[in-house]
Design goal:
Blueprint lengths: L4 H15 L6 E2 L15 E6 L4 E5 L5 E2 L4 H12 L2 H7 L13 H6 L8 H15 L3 H13 L8 H10 L1 H12 L7 H12 L2 E2 L1 H12 L12 H12 L5 H7 L4 E3 L4 E6 L3 E6 L2 E2 L6 H14 L9
Helix pairs in contact: 1-13, 2-5, 2-6, 2-11, 5-6, 5-8, 5-9, 7-9, 8-9
Length: 309
Amino acid sequence: MKPTPEELQQIVDEVYAAARKESGGEVASYIPELGKADANHFGISICDLDGGLMHAGDTDHPFTIQSISKVITYACALETCDREAIDQRVDIEPTGEDFDSIIKLDRHQRPFNPMVNAGAIAITDLLLSRFGKNALGATLEFYARLLGRADLEIDEKVFNSEVSTGKKNLATANLLKHFSLLDNEVDDVIELYCRHCSVLVTAVDLARLGANLARAGGHGLFSRPDTCRHVLSVMMTCGMYNDAGQWALDVGYPAKSGISGGMTASVPGRMGVGVFSPPVNELGSSVRGWAANRLISSKLGLHLFTCKE
């Protein structure tokens, strides 16, 4: 039996109190502007399929979406670009390497999946070709729809910080260009990619994103019926980077983390979960986000691979 909103709010409060005690991880600082985040910020939001919200903590505090943008960018490409072109550019397999690694890219000459930097950069190039000079406006309109926002802002300080320090992303894009996997100029692709990563969101936005995916789009959000299946499948296998296997075992539903401490999760047919807490583990996922989702999954019996009578 599904819990009432009141019962669900009580569970959120309990999870918040328990997960708040987690003290591991560090605030990411390799992008200097991100290193200024307050490690004490912590918020949990759950959005049910009717749009009802249950939350606790700093759920209205804005932060940059970072790698969670990859989920929306991939969905946007699936909706607007040629599927064969996507499949030719980007695979859908886990890498076994860091999210910004280029080791296997050099060997296989194609990004492993759209949830790592190389794959997201290749997908961004397709969107730049699709929309041309209007690429930023068109993609941000799609972002706003999936996040349930009337409008979106880009944190210019974070954007500039990412561009000025993102030499590895630049190297990745140049390698993609070398393998004829980018059609546009490297600098233009990296600018759009970094602007996507610098979109400001809240834990509530990430919960709504998860809920929109959990309801298979719904409300006319997607024009192609298999978009959500594609996105959720890749989130399940690749969204948590090299933590994906442990996440599947411990939590058991699709999710995507971001280096700023954000995390979005989607429980198909049930709800979306959004978490924000800046301290991240060595693989770039929010420590409190991990703890919170593990508890939510356990308390509500949400693990997709648990047999139910």
